[in-house]
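queue> pop job 88
queue> type: inverse folding (structure -> sequence)
queue> payload:
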């Protein structure tokens, strides 16, 4: 796999891009120029709209650490996750409430993305899938994992496939107990729920996880936790699919709402990690030498009785560390995963009143964090001294996170920052513009 990455790189050196995206995707090698943040609009704040915010992340730039572009999309759609096409020329960014997908051109001018297409018939085109979540690149196509359905707004949903041009191709419903679509149910659960999707091409495997439906993720978190029926409507499975045929093969138990999936990069590391939001556990999804897939609970995150609520995770490029953010206590933790069956926590840092997403450079030296989870789940205030809605950049020195810069998104009137993606001029054969002479920047 590392050879594949090298083949797709652009000759800038030995370091590179974030570690958790599609293996089919071209990788940045070296310093990223920009961080694109898909941001949730907040009523009464700025224009109140969801927007793509571009931050200059190159230390040599005169606008380093500043917002250099902000592109609003005409309303609030519950901005959530985004993903590049395999050529990284376009960024697809989805809204969980309206099921819109916004497609941005990020290659013509990486400093100022342009909205070039909007898919506004996702529910109708896909046969009733609601809540496009992960936007995942495969060769010439985008796989979209749904969270819900138009029939009952519950958790049963599907994978959807589009061309890079934005044309609908197919819908693949996730196996449930009453219709396994040819898959084998191996444990107690077969719920038909969806959340994340990742590919492990060397094993011809596609892996999906499971969360909850529109009725829950568009309801305040406190109301859900007080409602036993709502709490019972969370996913408890991962599904192994045939990557090439999109045929679901095996349904495996992972109780407690397994969210993000992060697969190892080593050529003989046939495993992926996920964490469970409701039970605060680390699970390993692994294949044996015969190709049989299993799931194993391998670790505990913080004190589950305090509901830390694990959210985003990120694996190091050398498969040595797994970063785990816990939203409710605003803390990030690093686990040594040299032995994937025995993760050991080696670092912990509280970042704010809440924390959600993280994204690290390929060399692991730069790590970025954002705070927003869902518009109706986010905290509305913070204790004194703790930040509420932020983007924070750090250097990782191997032992500790050292802050470099931070942006208060509410103070800037931008909204609530969610998922990040990296941009770089070098991806498109472009030179980073030289800074203007100092005299040219002086205002009369």
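queue> result:
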């Amino acid at each position: 796999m590392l050879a594949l990455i090298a083949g797709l790189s652009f000759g800038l050196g030995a370091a590179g891009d974030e570690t958790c995206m599609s293996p089919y995707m071209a990788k940045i090698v070296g310093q990223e120029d920009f961080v694109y943040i898909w941001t949730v609009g907040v009523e009464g704040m700025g224009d109140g709209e969801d927007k793509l915010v571009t931050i200059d992340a190159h230390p040599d730039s005169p606008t380093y650490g500043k917002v250099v572009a902000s592109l609003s999309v005409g309303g609030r759609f519950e901005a959530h996750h985004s993903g590049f096409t395999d050529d990284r020329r376009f960024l697809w960014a989805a809204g969980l409430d309206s099921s819109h997908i916004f497609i941005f051109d990020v290659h013509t001018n990486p400093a100022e993305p342009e909205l070039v297409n909007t898919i506004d018939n996702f529910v109708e085109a896909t046969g009733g899938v609601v809540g496009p979540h992960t936007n995942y690149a495969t060769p010439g196509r985008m796989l979209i994992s749904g969270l819900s359905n138009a029939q009952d707004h519950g958790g049963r949903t599907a994978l959807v496939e589009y061309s890079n041009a934005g044309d609908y191709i197919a819908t693949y419903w996730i196996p449930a107990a009453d219709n396994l679509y040819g898959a084998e149910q191996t444990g107690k659960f077969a719920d038909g729920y969806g959340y994340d999707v990742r590919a492990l091409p060397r094993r011809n495997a596609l892996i999906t996880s499971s969360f909850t439906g529109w009725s829950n993720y568009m309801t305040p978190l406190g109301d859900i936790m007080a409602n036993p029926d709502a709490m019972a409507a969370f996913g408890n499975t991962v599904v192994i699919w045939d990557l090439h045929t999109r045929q679901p093969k095996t349904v495996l138990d992972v109780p407690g709402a397994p969210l993000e999936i992060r697969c190892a990069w080593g050529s003989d590391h046939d495993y992926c990690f996920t964490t469970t939001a409701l039970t605060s556990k680390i699970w390993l999804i692994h294949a044996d030498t015969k190709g049989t897939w299993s799931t194993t609970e391998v670790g505990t995150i913080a004190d589950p009785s305090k509901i830390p609520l694990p959210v985003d995770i990120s694996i190091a490029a050398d498969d040595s560390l797994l970063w785990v953010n816990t939203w409710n206590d605003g803390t990030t933790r690093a686990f040594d995963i040299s032995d994937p069956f025995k993760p050991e926590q080696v670092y912990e840092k509280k970042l704010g009143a809440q924390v959600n997403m993280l994204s690290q450079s390929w060399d692991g030296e730069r790590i970025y964090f954002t705070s927003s989870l869902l518009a109706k789940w986010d905290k509305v205030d913070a204790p004194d001294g703790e930040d509420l809605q932020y983007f924070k950049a750090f250097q990782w020195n191997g032992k500790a996170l050292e802050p470099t810069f931070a942006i208060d998104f509410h103070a800037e009137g931008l909204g609530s920052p969610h998922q990040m993606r990296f941009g770089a001029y070098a991806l498109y054969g472009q030179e980073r513009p030289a800074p203007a002479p100092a005299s040219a920047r002086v205002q009369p």
